[in-house]
């Protein structure tokens, strides 16, 4: 791995759990891992199935490979759809060798150590060696547009952003502008995947290899070098690197950022899709595990104190009030969603109130509310100094052996002696704690994620 600028190559957190938090992204039995094949068969039965076709590249016969579920987007203001594509083949030795020599890493946004932040990785495809700065510019622009959407806009300090170069032989991607156009690119990006024009597929095995070049990867976005509208969401991939899914989007289309935002609703917020296929279909399964779908009506939610009952009747940023709106999870009937039309139903919309709550909790599953310049495992003298950086709005509270030093409340730089650590030659514990003060998270089980704590052993 080659990292440009002043960044430690040893930045990957040792022992950091980058696996997905407990719980699936989709309502059982809609898209759970165990029933994904049956789920998509049921979902696709409600709409016209895309003709079978070969995904771009690898050498093995695509028809012989397992099916990979993907989400795609027919237009900027439309409902997403689902289909399956052939899963990517394992990397051939020649591909491994080529990728090993490629993949320079450039930090685009740095807010703290990878162990304490949510790390977003952009990988470019269809950029030649001389176009990598164009890719970096496109990645910065996409991130700026993504973080204009709430709750991203309020939580930009929780993220690090990395750009991983993937040098392509040809400029652009296959299927742009027409299906017969074929280009040789590092990740095999192609429109017309499975004969669906706006479906922008990639070789996920190659994406995994390039994502591993970054110091850490919690989210992965592949930017295909194109101005044509399109993208995809791979939300059922298994990653050894630790990210939950892959979003693809056109680099130079000014509306494709909404695809990435929607996909992070699945990967970070663990939110279900709130749309149906517009045809008859009634859900008869168990109560979904996702926070934004339920079989209950508003009165039942309130009386049983289930799902988004805390938000019922509240004005929602996506328009209207929170209630129980029939249709969602690909079914027209039998499932209710919180609002009429959030971004989990239609691109270009806002997250609704329950969706924002889930997204903020997802941010905090990966990122801490405060970071420190002195590692917690490092011994500290009574005369030393501690400096912390809290999330904007969070108030640090300092403790010595469990008792708060009230005079230091809100301080970001402290000295253990001034906190009250006695000069007795014994070892004492200095702790700092901070909580995100947002009122956008009401569920107590999620609010517990909003508090971070750091401790040091200090010799008095």
UniProtKB/TrEMBL annotation:
Q: Gene3D superfamilies, per this entry?
A: Collagenase (Catalytic Domain) (3.40.390.10)
Q: What is this protein called?
A: M64 family metallopeptidase
Q: Where is this region: Disordered?
A: 1-28, 54-80
Name the InterPro entries for this protein: MetalloPept_cat_dom_sf, Peptidase_M64_IgA
Compositional bias (Low complexity): 54-67
């Amino acid at each position: 791995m080659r990292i440009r600028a002043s960044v430690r190559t040893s930045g990957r957190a040792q022992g950091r759990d980058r696996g997905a938090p407990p719980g699936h992204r989709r309502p059982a039995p809609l898209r759970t891992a165990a029933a994904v094949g049956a789920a998509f068969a049921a979902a696709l039965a409600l709409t016209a199935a895309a003709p079978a076709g070969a995904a771009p590249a690898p050498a093995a016969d695509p028809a012989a490979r397992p099916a990979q579920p993907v989400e795609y987007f027919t237009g900027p203001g439309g409902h997403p759809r689902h289909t399956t594509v052939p899963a990517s083949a394992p990397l051939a030795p020649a591909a491994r060798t080529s990728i090993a020599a490629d993949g320079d890493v450039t930090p685009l946004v740095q807010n703290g150590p990878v162990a304490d932040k949510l790390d977003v990785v952009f990988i470019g495809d269809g950029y030649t060696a001389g176009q990598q700065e164009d890719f970096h510019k496109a990645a910065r622009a996409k991130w700026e547009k993504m973080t204009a959407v709430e709750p991203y806009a309020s939580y930009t300090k929780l993220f690090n952003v990395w750009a991983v170069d993937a040098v392509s032989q040809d400029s652009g991607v296959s299927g742009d502008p027409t299906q017969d156009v074929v280009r040789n690119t590092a990740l095999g990006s192609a429109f017309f995947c499975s004969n669906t024009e706006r479906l922008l597929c990639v070789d996920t095995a190659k994406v995994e290899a390039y994502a591993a070049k970054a110091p850490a990867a919690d989210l992965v976005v592949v930017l295909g070098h194109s101005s044509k509208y399109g993208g995809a969401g791979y939300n059922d991939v298994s990653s050894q690197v630790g990210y939950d899914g892959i979003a693809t989007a056109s680099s130079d289309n000014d509306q494709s950022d909404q695809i990435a935002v929607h996909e992070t609703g699945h990967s970070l917020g663990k939110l279900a899709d709130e749309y149906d296929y517009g045809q008859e279909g009634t859900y008869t399964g168990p109560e979904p595990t996702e926070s934004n779908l339920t079989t209950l009506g508003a009165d039942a939610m309130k009386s049983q104190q289930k799902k988004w009952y805390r938000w019922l009747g509240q004005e929602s940023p996506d328009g209207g009030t929170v209630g129980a709106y029939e249709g969602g999870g690909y079914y027209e009937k039998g499932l209710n969603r919180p609002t009429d039309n959030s971004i989990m139903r239609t691109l270009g919309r806002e997250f609704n109130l329950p969706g924002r709550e889930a997204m903020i909790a997802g941010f905090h599953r990966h990122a801490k509310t405060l970071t420190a310049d002195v590692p917690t495992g490092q011994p500290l003298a009574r005369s030393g100094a501690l400096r912390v950086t809290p999330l904007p709005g969070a108030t640090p509270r300092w403790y010595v052996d469990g008792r708060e030093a009230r005079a230091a409340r809100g301080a970001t730089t402290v000295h253990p002696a001034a906190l009250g650590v006695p000069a007795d030659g014994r070892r004492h514990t200095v702790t700092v704690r901070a909580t995100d003060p947002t009122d956008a998270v009401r569920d107590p089980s999620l609010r517990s994620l909003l508090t971070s704590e750091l401790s040091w052993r200090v010799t008095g």
